[in-house]
């Protein structure tokens, strides 16, 4: 029988870790449109195709109609996943929240030279944003900083769609289409989604050819509190789960995750029941590697078949598990390469 943290403890741990800026954005289940909502359409359905040199009207991830005088040229992004999408679309990103953290945790795309730091994701600097004179500021739909209120009337703000477990890939598609419209380049959005779909199809074929379709996996990251290693599990509905299951693998973690990100928390005792001989563990660690350093002498950990058989795969540092299409492609590639390596 697995040992699991209580829901309250798990939630507190997730929030504390997120606040450090080293993992997911703060867990939020708020998806309510702003009070200025003028349409209930999704971004993909409610966004109008722009003229190359004319005004643009989009419906963003919170259902708000945002009017732009022309396609946005200079853009500021206050969340890493949104910044990754914008860069993948060719946007001129002039400012980002916590660029140092982005460069550590999301290496799927590189930041341009000279990009400006506009504060932390949870505490952006309005003065720094406005000093860049951007055409638009892009925020996460899960943003709780309320910086949009301080920017109101000064610069247009576009929200992405907030994360919701089990719908992240669809949500990502809508955000790509929305941002492409903001940039006045719908074709770039279509090309980016085609590239992602082709990468997922390729990874699916590779998993099948490796004879690994239908085999179980676990995905985790972790952190230490004193000598205790806390393990954060990517449950069914997390973005990584959606990627892995779409290419043919099966998530062995059956406990529910949170509603926004599909994440749960356990400890090494909670892993003790995972004894299937064909089980693989994937994990991410862009800074401290608690799996290699914190569990090396733990007898429970060392007794697990996937540890004894070396069926542990560390994702490349800088693999952002809450990112955009470039991150999706990277994760699918790494999962496919891992199962191929075990043939």
UniProtKB/TrEMBL annotation:
A Pfam family that the UniProt record links to this protein: Peripla_BP_2
Signal peptide residues on this chain, from the entry's feature table: 1-18
Chain segments carrying region Disordered: 25-57
UniProt organism field: Tessaracoccus lubricantis
Primary residence: other
Keywords, in A-Z order: Signal, Transport
Similarity comment text for this entry: Belongs to the bacterial solute-binding protein 8 family.
Protein name as catalogued: ABC transporter substrate-binding protein
Compositionally biased tracts (Low complexity): 25-44
């Amino acid at each position: 029988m697995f040992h699991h943290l209580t829901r309250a403890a798990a939630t507190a741990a997730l929030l504390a870790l997120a606040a450090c800026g080293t993992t997911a954005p703060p867990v939020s289940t708020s998806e309510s449109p702003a009070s200025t909502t003028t349409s209930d359409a999704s971004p993909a359905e409610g966004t109008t195709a722009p003229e190359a040199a004319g005004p643009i009207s989009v419906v963003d991830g919170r259902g708000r109609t945002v009017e732009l005088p022309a396609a946005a040229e200079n853009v500021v992004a206050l969340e890493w996943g949104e910044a990754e999408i914008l860069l993948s679309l060719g946007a001129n990103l002039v400012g980002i929240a916590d660029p140092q953290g982005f460069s550590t945790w999301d290496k799927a795309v590189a930041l341009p030279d000279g990009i400006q730091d506009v504060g932390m994701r949870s505490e952006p600097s309005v003065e720094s944003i406005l000093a860049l004179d951007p055409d638009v500021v892009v925020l996460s739909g899960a943003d709780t900083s309320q910086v949009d209120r301080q920017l109101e009337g000064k610069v247009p703000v576009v929200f992405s769609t907030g994360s919701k477990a089990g719908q992240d890939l669809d949500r990502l598609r809508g955000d790509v289409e929305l941002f492409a419209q903001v940039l006045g380049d719908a074709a770039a959005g279509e090309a980016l989604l085609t590239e992602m779909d082709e990468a997922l199809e390729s990874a699916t074929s590779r998993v099948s050819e490796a004879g690994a379709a239908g085999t179980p996996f676990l995905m985790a990251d972790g952190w230490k509190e004193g000598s205790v290693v806390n393990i954060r599990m990517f449950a069914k509905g997390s973005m990584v789960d959606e990627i892995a299951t779409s290419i043919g693998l099966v998530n062995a973690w059956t406990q529910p995750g949170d509603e926004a990100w599909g994440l749960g928390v356990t400890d090494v005792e909670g892993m003790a029941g995972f004894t299937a001989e064909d089980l693989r563990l994937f994990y991410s660690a862009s800074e401290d590697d608690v799996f290699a350093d914190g569990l090396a002498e733990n007898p429970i950990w060392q007794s697990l078949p996937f540890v004894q058989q070396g069926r542990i795969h560390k994702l490349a540092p800088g693999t952002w598990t809450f990112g955009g299409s470039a991150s999706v492609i990277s994760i699918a590639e790494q999962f496919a390469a891992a199962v191929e390596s075990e043939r």
